C-alpha cells in the first residue's frame, strides 16, 4: 500500500511540473501516468512492483534490454575516466574507436563521421551539409529537397520540413521551407495482385519525374530506407532504393538515408541499405546506436563530401555546425558496447529466428475482421486495423481506438503504443518466448476490445 502511494505520489507531482512529449496533457486527467523505477531486460518496473513488457523498445531505441550488464559496465568504466569534453579542437578515445568501428561496418565509401545528439539534429546536419556542399561547389541554386509522402525525419524545423506526417507538420507549415513531396512506394497501397517489388518499381516513376523536373535546383533526396516508421510502419521493397541510388547519381543529387529508426538490425540486416546493396551519400544514425542508453547521433558521409569543405579558413567553406554534447564519451562508450554485443552474440543471425517467431505469433490475427494487413520487415511487425477489412475503410481517427488498445495492454502489463490505428511490435532483441506469447495474447485481446 505504501509503495502504491509512492507510484501515485510521483505521478501527481510529475503532472504539476513536467510537460510530456507528444502528449495532449489533458488526457492525463483520465489516463494514469506510469512512473518507472527500474528496468531489467525487456521489462520496465513501476514503484509498486508492477511490470510492463517494453514491446516498443522505449520509442525504438532499446536493443539489448534495460540495464544491460555489459552496456552498464562500459558506461560505468568510462564514467570513471571522462564524462565529457568539447569535440572541437579536442578528441577522445571512445569517439575515435566508434568512428573506426562504424566506418568499418557501413557500406564501403562512408568514411567520415559527424556527430550530433539526437535523430532530428542528425537530419539537420545532413540537410545543411548537402546544401553547403553544393554551395562550396559553386552551385548555390541547389537548395531544394525531395522527400517521400508519409515520411518522418524528426521534429526540429528542418527535419519537420523534409518529413510529411500531417499530424506533426501541418500546424507548423508557415515556419517550414518548401520541399517537393513524391508519392510513397508504401506497399499497403499496392494494387490487388501486385507484388511489393512491382509496386515499388511502379511508384518510382513519381520520383523519376520529380528528379527530371527539379534536379538542377535540388540538393538531396531524403528517405527512410525500407520502413516509414512514424508514418504507420509502412514498408517497401529494396528495389526502390536501388532505383533511387541510380537516379540520384544520374541527376547529380545527394541521397540521404535516414536510418535513425531502421538502423542497427531493425530490418533484418545491420543497416537497411545493405538489402539494396547501395551506398547513400549520407547516412543518419541514432536511437539504437547507443543500445537505447544515451542521446547520440551521427551522420556518416564520403570523402568527396568531406573534401568539398576542406580549405583555408579564410575561404569560409568549413562546416561550422555544432552541439554542446557532440560525440559525448559516455554515449560513445555505450555505442561501442552495443557493437560488441552485435559481434559476440551474432545478433543479426539470432534475430532471424526471433523475427520468424514474431511472424508465427501474429499469424493467428491474419483473418481478423478488423485487420487489413499484417506486414513485417525483420524486427518490425505491424498490424493495420480498419473498420472494414474488405473495403479497407479506416477507423475515424477521433475514435482513438489505438488509445483503447494502449490502455488495455497496460492493464495486462504490456507497453504497446499504436500509431493511430496501426499496432506494431518493435521489441528489444532479447525478447523471450513467454514474453512473445504474452505480447501476442494481449495484442489479440486488445484488438478485439479496441475494435468492438
Ligand atoms: N528520423 C526517423 C526516421 C525517426 O524515426 C526519428 C524519430 O522517431 C527521427 C528521425 C528523430 O529522432 P529524434 O526523436 O531522436 O530527434
Describe the structure.
By secondary structure, the chain is an alpha/beta fold. It folds into 2 domains: 36-67 and 346-451, Aspartate Aminotransferase, domain 1, CATH 3.90.1150.10; 72-344, 3-Layer(aba) Sandwich (Aspartate Aminotransferase, domain 2). Helices cover 38% and strands 15% of the residues. The protein contains 14 helices and 16 strands. The chain has helices at residues 2-17, 57-60, 69-81, 93-105, 119-136, 157-161, 166-169, 196-214, 239-251, 303-307, 329-344, 347-363, 401-411, 433-451, and strands spanning 36-40, 43-46, 51-54, 112-116, 144-148, 180-182, 218-223, 227-228, 234-235, 254-258, 282-285, 297-301, 371-377, 380-385, 414-415, 422-425. The chain has a 7-stranded mixed sheet, with helices on both faces. Strands 1-2-3-15 form a 4-stranded mixed sheet. The chain has a 3-stranded antiparallel sheet with strand order 13-14-16, with helices on one face. α12 runs parallel beside α14 (433-451) and α13 packs across α14 (433-451). It is globular. 46% of the residues are buried. The mean pLDDT is 97. The protein binds pyridoxal-5'-phosphate (PLP). Pyridoxal-5'-phosphate binds at residues 118-120, 123, 152-154, 224, 229-230, 258, 260-261, 286.
Amino acid at each position: 500500500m505504501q509503495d502504491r502511494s509512492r507510484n501515485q505520489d510521483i505521478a501527481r507531482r510529475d503532472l504539476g511540473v513536467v510537460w510530456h512529449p507528444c502528449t495532449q496533457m489533458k488526457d492525463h486527467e483520465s489516463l494514469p501516468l506510469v512512473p518507472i523505477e527500474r528496468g531489467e531486460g525487456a521489462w520496465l518496473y513501476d514503484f509498486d512492483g508492477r511490470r510492463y513488457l517494453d514491446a516498443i523498445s522505449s520509442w525504438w531505441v532499446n536493443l539489448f534490454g534495460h540495464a544491460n550488464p555489459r552496456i552498464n559496465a562500459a558506461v560505468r568504466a568510462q564514467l570513471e575516466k571522462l564524462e565529457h569534453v568539447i569535440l572541437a579542437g579536442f578528441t577522445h578515445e571512445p569517439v575515435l574507436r566508434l568512428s573506426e568501428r562504424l566506418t568499418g561496418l557501413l557500406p564501403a565509401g562512408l568514411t567520415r563521421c559527424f556527430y550530433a545528439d539526437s535523430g532530428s539534429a542528425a537530419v539537420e546536419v545532413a540537410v545543411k551539409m548537402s546544401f553547403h556542399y553544393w554551395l562550396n561547389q559553386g552551385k548555390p541554386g541547389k537548395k531544394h529537397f525531395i522527400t517521400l509522402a508519409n515520411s518522418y525525419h524528426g521534429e526540429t524545423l528542418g527535419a519537420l520540413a523534409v518529413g510529411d506526417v500531417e499530424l506533426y507538420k501541418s500546424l507548423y507549415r508557415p515556419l517550414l521551407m518548401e520541399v517537393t513531396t513524391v508519392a510513397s512506394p508504401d506497399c499497403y497501397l499496392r494494387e490487388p495482385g501486385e507484388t511489393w517489388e512491382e509496386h515499388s518499381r511502379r511508384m518510382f516513376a513519381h520520383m523519376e519525374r520529380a528528379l527530371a523536373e527539379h534536379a538542377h535546383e535540388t540538393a538531396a533526396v531524403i528517405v527512410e530506407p525500407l520502413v516509414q516508421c512514424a508514418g504507420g510502419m509502412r514498408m517497401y521493397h529494396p528495389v526502390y532504393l536501388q532505383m533511387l541510388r541510380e537516379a540520384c547519381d544520374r541527376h547529380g543529387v545527394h541521397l540521404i538515408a535516414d536510418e535513425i529508426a531502421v538502423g542497427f538490425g531493425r530490418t533484418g540486416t545491420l543497416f537497411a541499405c545493405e538489402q539494396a546493396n547501395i551506398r547513400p551519400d549520407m547516412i543518419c544514425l541514432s536511437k539504437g546506436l547507443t543500445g537505447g542508453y544515451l542521446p547520440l547521433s551521427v551522420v556518416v558521409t564520403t570523402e568527396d563530401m568531406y573534401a568539398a569543405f576542406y580549405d583555408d579558413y579564410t575561404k569560409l567553406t568549413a562546416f561550422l555546425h555544432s552541439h554542446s554534447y557532440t560525440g559525448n564519451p559516455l554515449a560513445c562508450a555505450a555505442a561501442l558496447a552495443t557493437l560488441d554485443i552485435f559481434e559476440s552474440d551474432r545478433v543479426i543471425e539470432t534475430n532471424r529466428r526471433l523475427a520468424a517467431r514474431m511472424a508465427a505469433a501474429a499469424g493467428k490475427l491474419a483473418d481478423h475482421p478488423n485487420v487489413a494487413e499484417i506486414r513485417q520487415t525483420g524486427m518490425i511487425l505491424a498490424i493495420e486495423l480498419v473498420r472494414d477489412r474488405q473495403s479497407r475503410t479506416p477507423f475515424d481517427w477521433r475514435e482513438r481506438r489505438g488509445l483503447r488498445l494502449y490502455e488495455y495492454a497496460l492493464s495486462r502489463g504490456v507497453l504497446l503504443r499504436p500509431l493511430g490505428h496501426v499496432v506494431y511490435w518493435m521489441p528489444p532483441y532479447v525478447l523471450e518466448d513467454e514474453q512473445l506469447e504474452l505480447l501476442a495474447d494481449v495484442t489479440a485481446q486488445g484488438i478485439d476490445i479496441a475494435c468492438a
